[in-house]
Design a protein that fits this description.
Layout lengths: L11 H4 L55 E5 L5 E6 L6 E8 L13 H11 L8 H8 L10 E3 L4 E8 L3 H16 L5 H17 L3 H13 L4 H4 L6 H6 L2 H11 L5 E7 L4 H12 L27 E6 L6 E10 L6 H25 L8 E8 L4 E10 L3 H21 L3 H20 L6 H14 L6 H14 L2 H8 L8 E7 L6 H16 L29 E7 L4 E6 L4 E6 L7 E8 L7 H8 L1 H8 L6 H7 L5 E7 L3 E8 L4 H13 L8 H18 L3 H14 L10 H6 L2 H11 L7 E6 L3 H11 L33 E7 L6 E12 L3 E2 L4 E2 L3 H32 L6 E6 L11 E12 L4 H18 L3 H18 L3 H12 L11 H18 L2 H11 L6 E7 L3 H6 L6 H26 L3
Helix pairs in contact: 2-5, 2-9, 4-10, 11-13, 11-15, 11-16, 12-16, 12-17, 13-15, 18-25, 19-25, 21-26, 27-28, 27-29, 27-31, 27-32, 28-32
Length: 1070
């Protein structure tokens, strides 16, 4: 965090930092990476000097891992493999892995779920590390530990992963020792197994939401009649809950053998041979468990039998938030071990890109057959690859069938007629651009990426040849590829060739018969020759046509400043816009751009709020840059120049991510965003589909218990203002598209309100010329090109939110397909503003006051970090009742200029658990927080929090995004005026405050902060629980609930009335 700036926010869905309507904009184009223009490249990458790759000569050759000067590999005497690779990104870090060639497919009937639970047990205790000592070790060195961060179990493999600092050589030694313990010495006592069951059951429950249920059912249909269908990694609840611990020990002893393992290390190693020596010493003694046979047991990985008739299923789940149709085609897995294999993968990827582009153009038409569509190719198992197309439709039988038929028709068109040379060219440009980025950043590949590649090499034989060799290979494959190759691949994707179709809905409208009939109709069209070739389309050569749309004269530089400490040079241009440039060597193929200005949705009155809220969505649908999105995606094919606009509560931003060679293209996009009038592109027929999609998204969210839960928290925590209340279906049509367009143009029209940062690898002199040409020529509203307005928002309008006036405890009952529970506790944070004058009721900004305010915000963040670890230790490690939890601090809704007596934020705790445990565990969490406030944290807890932040900071400071965000924070600081705009002085003050807090933090400081600032009395506790079926609520009421009490009281009153009536009749002799 920086001085008097908003702290980084974890909960974007709840804190209001970024406010966007629900639903996926259908204007999201297929990924369009990058190819060079003149750009602003800072150095020659050597791309154009690559020598041709002898593809034909090496077609079937299994290539060695490389490059050899950075790599070592071998096999220990016990059969274990090792791979060591050098990379300098991030500095002083190493990514380690222990890959075990066994997964859930090897489980016996009584072992279903054992492989995954054994993976959990590894972090609980081993022979040399007691209960959770490994977790404490990881926390002590600032390494990550948490759900899905340190290990995974799939059907075919189990992989343990660590990312550790290695500036202290002893840390690497200990981390390798931990990995060796995983290999041979995991402790699996009866108590260990029993204590870990709860965490795994909760993980199982978390995965059983609507998407998880549908995914599991679809997987079983895809892999029908094979062990892959019956051996899901999460396993059976009966085994996880009650499985005999001896079964877990048996599995570990049988399969965890050195012959089935590899240890992988990729990092910033000074001496790679020394790392090899450490591996040999540490892992050389690993051996099969006592009593195990000498021969490594065989793992049977089943082949999937082909089927001629398509398999069809309709998944109806009232919690589905989308209506989708998925087409999946199975074929034999294609290992990537040779250049020939790599060529086939290149063809598959090109086919996917080309089909994605076609589907994107279809969904952009007026009244399209579907909302959105995307394709994917992946290796589902070691023996099966799949190509899938997922089509998102409007709810209803006719629309689902129409979307399905459209997808099937395009696949048939690709089989029958292939793709045009133009379509193939666009796909090739994207593939070449990806390879170029990988090559240019070959010395900056992250150690985690290299580790994962080497894991894939060990387990699946995947190519790992180094960026230069892979770039040469990619170019050769792309050049060799023809439209015939794509058509040949398309021939696999037939209804009679292992096709599986799923319709996924929130309520039943379409049947398997409907889907089968749709398939028959498209097959009949194909047989009758009624499916014609794809229509050609024109791709403009330029974003800005110099003849049709000439640019105004370039702007001039009117002022310059240099901030040496931060490394920024700033230039004020003649139209009032300020640009700040920082060249770095973090990534050689990245330039991050941000244009930012104060003033966002908090400035908008309630009567216009919906129009402003939807402004970015509507503009994105029509064409933010004055060009329709489907045309823009083709113009940008082969270029990495992604630009997007955002409007938050207190800010407006335009963010860009460019290749240095595409900076000019990116700046052209920024120019067009500021100068285009999206209202001129308004076509109500084209907009209708996105309005219907928004309506359905809101409607579907009401069916999803978690969405309702999140909306409830937001509304209760921040008060019932128009900005925090959930959107309703009727709100979509209340929005006026014309006014939404006007809002967007108004948000991004006056350049003098914006400051633009560029951080990355570029030549400053060349880029400055482009900035003058494209940004300096943006005219202000109703002004000439060389004059500018002075309408900058200095003090933003505070958002209308207020915390509750009392403690709120709400149990939210929601209908659920499968019972689950979530619990949250949100505490208001109210920091006394040191600059508030109680007499004048005004603030007088001071350096000392801002330092103290920043200090308290930092202490709040650290306190949240401590809370999270304490609750994880309590609720997971001690009681075993949760899988993970999150605690986060946010100040995103508060006025960032701190003009009131209190600076407000909140701390939120969130976790999921057993349906019966929500309120009890929330009470336990609350009790632990109160204990923390009364007693303060331990010295060890302080040290861990500081170490984690220190290590995280070491990595973040090597990233362009960190400096982009930091510049915005100090630029917007309320201290700017006091320090005469000296951002270096502000940066130094901010960093000194951070260092002082981290160096001098004590338990008493945290205790005092929490006592003064954390408002426990006005907490908001929300517990999501399943609502019992209606018949149970009526005939078997629960007296512990208010509803149950009323039902029982009503039944009692009815019974009493009936008895009274019968007595009265009897008294009358009736």
């Amino acid at each position: 965090t920086s001085m008097a700036s908003d702290l980084p926010t974890v909960r974007t869905s709840l804190d209001g930092a970024e406010v966007t309507p629900p639903g996926t904009p259908r204007s999201e184009a297929p990924a369009t990476p990058n190819t060079p223009s003149i750009g602003g490249a800072v150095k020659s990458s050597g791309w154009k000097s690559l020598t041709p790759y002898p593809l034909a000569d090496k077609w079937n050759e299994v290539l060695p891992v490389g490059p050899s000067d950075r790599h070592r590999q071998g096999q220990l005497a016990n059969g274990m493999r090792y791979y060591v690779h050098v990379t300098q990104k991030p500095k002083d870090r190493a990514a380690l892995a222990l890959a075990v060639d066994v997964g859930s497919v090897a489980e016996e009937e009584d072992e279903q779920g054992v492989a995954h639970l054994v993976e959990h047990l590894a972090f609980r205790a081993t022979k040399s590390f007691g209960n959770f000592e490994i977790v404490r070790f990881l926390e002590s060195i600032g390494a990550e530990f948490g759900a899905c961060q340190n290990a995974y179990t799939s059907m075919d493999e189990t992989v343990y992963e660590l990312l550790v600092p290695i500036d202290d050589p002893l840390v690497l030694t200990k981390a390798l020792t931990v990995m060796s313990e995983f290999a041979s010495h995991v402790r699996i006592s009866d108590d260990d197994v029993n204590d870990e069951r709860g965490a795994v059951l909760e993980e199982m429950r978390m995965g059983r939401d609507a998407r998880g249920r549908a995914g599991e059912a679809y997987w079983k249909l895809l892999m029908k009649d094979s062990a892959y269908a019956a051996r899901l990694p999460i396993g059976l609840e009966s085994v996880v809950r009650k499985g005999d611990p001896s079964v877990f020990r048996r599995f570990y002893k049988k399969w965890y053998r050195p012959e089935r393992m590899a240890v992988i290390a990729a990092g910033d190693f000074a001496d790679v041979d020394d790392v090899v020596a450490q591996i040999e010493k540490t892992f050389g003694t690993c051996a099969p468990a006592a009593g195990q046979p000498a021969q490594n047991p065989e793992t049977i990985r089943p082949q999937i039998a082909p089927h001629a008739a398509p398999r069809i299923t309709c998944s109806v789940d009232k919690e589905h938030t989308r209506t989708n149709v998925t087409l999946t085609y199975k074929y034999g897995a294609n290992p990537i071990s040779t250049p020939g294999d790599f060529f086939q993968k290149t063809v598959e990827e090109a086919f996917k890109l080309a089909l994605d582009n076609r589907l994107y153009k279809l969904m952009r038409k007026p009244d399209p057959d579907f909302f959105s569509a995307t394709c994917g190719v992946e290796e589902a198992t070691r023996t099966v690859s799949v190509f899938s197309a997922q089509i998102s439709c409007e709810e209803g039988k006719d629309t689902v069938v129409k979307g399905l038929e459209s997808g099937l028709r395009e696949l048939a068109r690709a089989r029958l007629h292939g793709f045009s040379e133009q379509e193939l060219k666009i796909a090739k440009l994207k593939q070449t651009a990806d390879a170029q980025q990988f090559f240019v950043e070959r010395d900056q590949t992250y150690c985690t990426s290299l580790r994962d590649e080497l894991v894939g090499h060990f387990l699946r034989g995947e190519l790992v040849v180094g960026a230069e060799e892979e770039a040469r290979l990619t170019v050769a494959c792309v050049e060799k590829m023809t439209t015939h190759d794509l058509k040949q691949f398309a021939d696999r994707l037939r209804l009679d060739n292992s096709c599986v179709i799923r319709a996924m809905e929130g309520r039943p409208t379409v049947t398997e018969t409907d889907i089968a009939q749709a398939c028959s109709r498209i097959q009949d069209e194909e047989n009758r020759g009624e499916i014609s070739p794809n229509a050609m389309f024109d791709v403009p050569e330029h974003l800005i046509d110099p003849n049709a749309n000439p640019l105004p004269p370039p702007g001039t530089v009117t002022a310059t400043k240099t901030f040496k400490t931060m490394g920024f040079n700033t230039y004020t241009l003649s139209n009032g816009i300020t640009v700040a440039l920082k060249t770095t060597d973090f990534l050689d193929d990245q330039v991050l751009v941000r244009a930012f200005a104060k003033g966002g949705l908090s400035e908008i009155p309630e009567s216009k709020y919906l129009d402003a809220l939807y402004a970015n969505t509507i503009a994105g649908e029509l064409g933010t840059f004055g060009v329709k999105p489907e045309i823009l995606s083709d113009i940008l094919a082969g270029k990495r120049a992604d630009v997007s606009a955002k409007t938050g509560t207190y800010f407006r931003r335009v963010d860009g991510d460019f290749s240095p060679t595409d900076v000019e293209t990116g700046l052209q996009l920024v120019y067009l965003l500021f100068t285009s009038d999206v209202k001129k592109m308004l076509n109500h027929d084209e907009l209708e589909a996105v309005l219907r999609m928004q309506e359905q998204a809101i409607r579907n969210r009401r069916r999803d218990p978690v969405s309702v839960y999140n909306e409830t928290i937001r509304h209760l925590v921040y008060g019932k203002s128009f900005q925090s209340k959930p959107l309703k279906v009727g709100d979509v049509r209340k929005m006026n598209p014309e006014r939404a367009c006007e809002h967007f143009s108004g948000f991004f029209s006056d350049p003098s309100q914006f400051t633009v940062t560029l951080v990355g690898a570029f030549d400053e002199t060349r880029v400055l010329r482009m900035l003058r040409k494209y940004l300096g020529s943006i005219p202000g509203p109703n002004t000439g090109g060389d004059s500018h307005t002075n309408n900058k928002i200095v003090d933003v309008k505070p958002a209308p939110f207020r915390f509750p006036t009392r403690a709120v405890h709400k149990t939210l009952l929601a209908p659920m397909v499968e019972p689950m529970s979530m619990a949250s506790i949100t505490f208001p944070v109210q920091i006394a503003n040191p600059d508030w004058d109680q007499v004048t009721k005004k603030i007088a900004v001071s350096i000392a006051g801002s330092v103290e305010l920043t200090k308290q915000k930092l202490l709040c963040v650290f306190a949240s970090s401590i809370m999270e670890r304490r609750l994880l230790a309590l609720l997971r490690f001690k009681f075993g009742e949760i899988y993970t939890c999150a605690v986060s601090a946010s100040f995103a809704f508060e006025d960032p200029t701190a003009r009131g007596p209190l600076f407000r934020g909140d701390v939120m705790i969130n976790f999921s658990c057993d349906p019966k445990a929500g309120n009890r565990l929330a009470a336990l969490a609350l009790l632990d927080i109160k204990t923390l406030m009364e007693q303060g944290p331990s010295v060890e807890e302080i040290a861990t929090a500081v170490e984690v932040e220190t290590r995280g900071l070491e990595v973040r400071t090597q990233e362009n995004g960190y400096w982009r965000d930091y510049f915005e924070a100090v630029h917007n600081s309320r201290l700017g005026g006091l320090l005469g705009g000296d951002l270096d002085a502000l940066y130094a003050l901010s960093e000194k405050t951070r260092r002082d807090v981290m160096a001098n933090m004590t338990p008493q400081m945290i205790k005092t902060h929490l006592t003064k600032c954390l408002d426990v009395k006005h907490r908001v506790v929300v517990v999501l629980k399943p609502q019992r079926p209606t018949w149970k609520r009526v005939f078997l009421p629960d007296p512990a609930t208010g509803e149950g009490f009323l039902v029982m009281a009503g039944l009692g009153a009815a019974a009493y009335g009936a008895m009274y009536y019968l007595k009265a009749r009897k008294a009358k002799g009736e």
